[in-house]
Design goal:
Helix content is about 20%, strand content about 25%. Helix 2 runs parallel beside helix 4 and helix 8 packs parallel to helix 10. The protein contains twelve helices and 22 strands. It is α/β, with parallel strands linked by helices and about 550 residues long. It is globular and about 70 Å long. A hairpin with an 8-residue loop joins strand 3 and strand 4. The two termini are about 30 Å apart. Strands 5-2-1-10-9-8-20-21-22 form a nine-stranded mixed β-sheet. It has a seven-stranded mixed β-sheet with strand order 13-14-15-16-18-17-19. A four-stranded antiparallel β-sheet has the order 4-3-6-7.
Length: about 550
C-alpha cells in the first residue's frame, strides 16, 4: 500500500449464483467439493483467440478429460468445438484451453463439458478488435482483500455491458493469516478465508484461491468478461522482490525461492492467464496494452531508510542515501530483459501507427512526497502514524518519497522508462494499482511531459482514511499541493477505474462504491480525467 504497510464456505460452490455462507465451512468441505467447483473464467484475449478456464473435480477426485464448446448465441444453437484438456490433482483440477480461429471484436458464449456430460455454467467473453473504429472500454481493478469487505466493485462492473474487458493490476488476494490484516472490528462478518495461516506452500495458495474464487461477485465478473491479469506482491508475500519479501521469514517459512515458485505455480493454475511473464495486447488500431511483471522475476530489493533514522546524524545519512544508493542505476523494477522488451515493443507499437501505448504496472510511478502540511495532521494521529508522517516530512525536505516499494524506490529505472517513452514520440498512458487510493498524475522527465498515469483505488483494501484521522479532503489537498506531478487524488473511497480508449483520447473514470461493509453494487463516478492525442498531459 502506498501509505502504510502493516507489519503489525459453504461446501461446494457449484455455480456463479452460489451464495456465500455467513461462516465458511471448514477446509475439508471446500477441498472435498466435486464437479465444476468455481464456475468459469476467460482471459488473454486476442483478435482471434481467447483463453478459457474452469475447475472440475470428478467424483473420484482423479483424472478427467474436459472439452469446451463456443457459440455466438447463448442458446448454443450453432455450437462449435473449442478444444480439450486433461486435468487432475497435479494442477488442482484446473483447466485452461485456448480457443482459436475466432472473429475480432466478437462476443462468444462458452461452456465446458465433463466426461459424464455435466456442463459448467455458461460464460461470456469477447475478442479484441482488429481495427480502431469503435471505442474500447476496460474495467481496471487492484487490491481486493476479502475479509475487509464485499467485492461491490466487481458486482458493479459485472452489471455494465459497456465493458469489453477487465484488467487486474495485482493484489487479487492477500496472503495474511486470518485476523492479521484486517484485525478485529475491521473484518466484515461472513468474509472469512482459508487456510487459517499465512499462505506459504502450494496447498495454502490453492486453498486461498479457492476461498476468494468462491465469492459470487468475483465469479460473475469472470463469467461475463475476459480478464488481463498480473500479480503484484500479495499473491506471494507483502513487499516481495526477486530475492525475498518483507512478509517472509526464512527461519519459520523456509526458502523464499520455494515459496515464490509455489505462489507463481498456483497463480497460473487458478487464473485465466498464459505462462508468459509479460505480454503485449493489440487493441486493433487504437492501442497496444502492455502487461508487465514488476515483483518476482527482475526486481531488486527495495531501499529501507528506517535504519538511517537511527544514525547519529539522520539528516546526513538521508542525504548520503539520496545522493548515492537511491540513484543506483542497477536498481530495477523489471530487470534488464523486460526493460529491453518493453522499450522495443512500445517502439513497434508507435511505428505501426497505434495512437496509444498503455502500460500496466503493479505500483505507482508518479512522484509523491509527504506534504509539509502533514504537520497539521499530527494532533489527530496516534503515535505510530504520527511517527510515519514525521519521517515522511523529513524525507520530503530532501526531495525523497515516503514509499520505496513503488517506483519511488527506483528513480533511475523510472527515468529510463520515461525517457524511452519520450524518445518514441508516442502517447503513453500508465495504469497502476497497489496504493489503495485514487490518483491522477502528469508524469514528467527532464522537465518535459512524458506520460499520464491513472492510478486505481482498491476494491476493498483500506487507504489513508484507515490510518489518518484528518479529514480526507484535507489530506488530498495537501498531497496535490506538495506534488507537482499529482493533478488529483482521493484518499478515502474504494472502487475501480473505467478506462475508455478512442483514437483521439483516453478517458478514465474513478468509480466509487457506496460501501464495502454490506453487499451492494451501488456506485457513482467520483472523478473523470482525459488525455488527448499528442498532449501527454491531462486536460485541466
Amino acid at each position: 500500500m502506498q501509505f502504510h504497510r502493516r507489519d503489525i464456505i459453504k461446501t461446494a460452490m457449484l455455480g456463479a449464483g452460489a451464495l456465500l455462507a455467513p461462516d465458511w465451512a471448514r477446509a475439508a468441505a471446500l477441498i472435498g467439493a466435486r464437479g465444476f467447483t468455481h464456475a468459469v473464467a476467460s482471459g488473454e484475449p486476442g483478435a482471434h483467440e481467447v483463453l478459457l478456464w474452469t475447475r472440475y473435480v470428478p467424483t473420484d477426485g482423479g483424472v478427467a478429460d474436459l472439452r469446451v464448446e463456443l457459440s455466438e448465441t447463448e442458446d448454443f444453437a450453432r455450437a462449435f468445438a473449442g478444444g480439450t484438456m486433461q486435468t487432475g490433482p497435479w494442477r488442482d483440477h484446473t483447466v485452461k484451453i485456448v480457443a482459436t480461429g475466432l472473429a475480432p471484436a466478437r462476443r462468444y458464449f462458452y461452456r465446458f463439458i465433463a466426461p459424464d456430460g455435466t456442463r459448467s455454467p455458461v460464460g461470456r467473453t469477447r475478442t479484441l478488435p482488429a481495427d480502431g473504429q469503435q471505442p474500447w472500454r476496460a474495467a481496471v481493478f487492484s487490491c481486493s482483500n476479502l475479509p475487509f469487505g464485499w467485492f461491490n466493485a466487481y458486482a458493479h462492473a459485472a452489471q455494465n455491458d459497456a465493458f469489453d474487458c477487465t484488467i487486474h493490476l495485482g493484489d487479487y488476494f492477500y496472503e495474511y493469516a486470518p485476523g492479521h490484516y484486517p484485525e478485529g472490528a475491521d473484518a466484515v462478518a461472513g468474509r472469512a478465508i482459508l487456510p487459517d495461516a499465512n499462505t506459504v506452500h502450494v496447498a495454502d495458495y490453492r486453498l486461498r484461491f479457492a476461498s476468494y474464487r468462491a465469492d459470487p461477485d468475483l465469479q460473475e465478473l469472470h463469467r461475463r468478461f475476459p480478464m488481463i491479469a498480473q500479480w503484484d506482491d500479495h499473491e506471494s508475500a507483502n513487499d516481495s522482490w526477486s530475492g525475498g519479501a518483507q512478509h517472509h521469514d526464512p527461519a519459520t517459512e523456509g526458502d523464499w525461492g520455494v515459496r515464490k515458485d509455489a505462489a507463481m505455480q498456483v497463480y497460473r493454475e487458478w487464473m485465466p492467464v498464459s505462462e508468459a511473464p509479460w505480454k503485449a495486447y493489440d487493441i486493433g488500431g487504437l492501442a497496444t496494452l502492455f502487461r508487465t511483471e514488476t515483483r518476482l522475476l527482475g526486481r531488486t530489493q527495495q531501499p529501507d531508510v528506517a535504519p538511517l533514522f537511527k544514525a547519529a546524524d539522520p539528516i546526513a545519512a538521508l542525504k548520503a542515501f539520496r545522493d548515492g544508493a537511491w540513484q543506483d542505476p542497477a536498481a530495477t523494477m523489471m530487470g534488464s530483459e523486460q526493460e529491453a522488451w518493453l522499450a522495443g515493443a512500445m517502439q513497434a507499437s508507435v511505428k505501426s501507427g497505434r495512437p496509444w501505448q498503455i502500460v500496466g504496472f503493479g505500483t505507482i510511478m508518479g512522484q509523491t512526497v509527504m506534504p509539509a502540511s502533514a504537520q497539521d495532521w499530527l494532533a489527530n494521529e496516534v503515535a505510530p502514524v504520527a511517527a510515519y508522517l514525521k519521517s515522511g516530512m523529513a524525507q520530503a525536505k530532501l526531495g525523497l518519497p515516503f514509499n520505496y516499494d513503488s517506483w519511488g524506490g527506483y528513480p533511475a529505472a523510472r527515468a529510463r522508462f520515461l525517457r524511452s517513452a519520450q524518445a518514441l514520440g508516442g502517447n503513453t498512458v500508465v495504469i497502476s494499482g497497489d496504493s489503495h487510493n485514487a490518483w491522477a498524475y502528469n508524469l514528467r522527465q527532464d522537465g518535459h511531459a512524458a506520460a499520464v498515469e491513472f492510478a486505481g483505488h482498491s476494491v476493498t483494501s483500506p487507504g489513508y482514511e484507515h490510518d489518518v484521522r484528518t479529514a480526507p479532503d484535507t489530506v488530498a489537498r495537501g498531497l496535490v499541493g506538495a506534488n507537482p506531478e499529482l493533478a488529483w487524488c482521493d484518499t478515502a473511497r474504494r472502487g475501480y477505474m473505467a478506462l475508455t480508449v478512442t483514437a483521439q483520447a483516453v478517458t478514465n473514470e474513478w468509480i466509487m462504491v457506496d460501501t464495502i461493509r454490506e453487499r451492494s453494487p451501488a456506485a457513482s463516478v467520483g472523478h473523470r480525467a482525459t488525455v488527448r492525442l499528442g498532449r501527454n498531459a491531462m486536460e485541466a
